[in-house]
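User: Some background: our group keeps a shared notebook of sequences we're curious about, and every so often someone picks one and asks for a predicted structure to add to the entry. Today it's my turn. The entry only has the sequence so far, pasted here. Could you supply the structure so I can complete it?
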Amino acid sequence: MGPPVTETLDEPVELSLGDFDSHGVTRARVAQRWLEVEQGIPGEVVSARVTTGKRPQGRIIEVLKAATDRVAPPCEYFRDWKCGGCQWQHISYEGQIRRKRESVDAQMASAGIDVRVGQVHTEEPWRYRSTAGIALGRHAGFRRRASLAIVPIRDCPISHPLIGKLMATLNDQLQAGSIPDFHGRLRLDVRVLQSPRDGARMQVMVRPDQHRRPPAEDVEILLKALSDLEFVEQLAFTLITGEIELVRGDLFGTIEVAGRSVELVSGSFFQTNLKLLPSLIDRLLEEAGELKGKRIADVYGGVGIFGLFLAEHARDVAVVESDPLAIQAGERTAKAWGISNVRFLTGRAEDVLEGDGPYEVVVLDPPRTGLSDEVTNLLIAQKPERILYVSCLAQSLARDLTAFITAGYQVESLELFDFYPHTYHVELLAVLKN
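Assistant: Of course. Here's the predicted structure to add to the notebook entry:
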């Protein structure tokens, strides 16, 4: 059976745009089928070129009736190349915040949870990203929306300028033939390390596709080219075994958060918006309440950033994390801060919580999928006084809050942190009291 047939209708179609879907894209109905319409806003009327097939789509040709918060996107890659890094540059920043609040409130109402977004925390909405995943093929850049094609990017207005500098350099080298075409089979995970003392430097983790691995000699050429860049301080790549091989510098690097030096390991997850992160830390400290003499757990803690800041006020903090390199980075930070009451525990949250609990206060920062039933049930059985739940997906948060509410917890507040301007993504803090 061949691939599904894709066909573009001969004439543009007038569409009335409905709500955003779960990926921040508007939808419209044509001939009894729903289709995605990129860069639309709910309530607008547009003229669009419609492509049918397995995934019907509409490409806006003209906006016939514009939303009041529509603006001209400043980024050429979003506007003309359909770069997938952003979804909402065509909406004013005030409009983005309003629509994110409405979306989260609707999710809570749908789940029967009587809480709405209170405070909304924002920072400068441009140049906020300190990390990026750069795809390499004939070009260097980000993937086009709903496609594997790579957009050749020379600067990204939501990212640190050093990230744009790296992509521009790589595109020049690809065009000159000094580094090979990787056909999309290799990604660079980059992080800008910045401090008042050392300025901006970069961590680069080279990640070849483990299933369609590029030739080793091509990877060597790329590693040499990256090693020659003066702003690349740390360089490593992943072997086929999944192990990391260091090429240049140290696996660990230092950033500054709320005036404190924090150790990070190359290639591991850490919040990309360092401008807004101190606001979340401040709110966690405020909502944790009086911590003197209490045991705290920072679950899915990564390098332990939340637990480290809470530790100065508590008797004991357990940072629970499955990534052993992130644990090492956290231990290095604790030593540098002179903190001795933080224990870094490597393992699955389910296993560690059962053996180490209970705690009076628990901070949760799980992946988008939220908590497993096992973790939820363990916490309900251990009955912490307060749960501070940091979530990047309203749907999974609503599901987990429902379980805690059923067990007798009360949701005291829900706050939105706009860590990802110009995208549909949100970061939420829910405060629960037993």
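Suggested note for the entry: The domain at 97-124+273-433 is CATH 3.40.50.150 (Rossmann fold). The first helix runs from residue 76 to 81.
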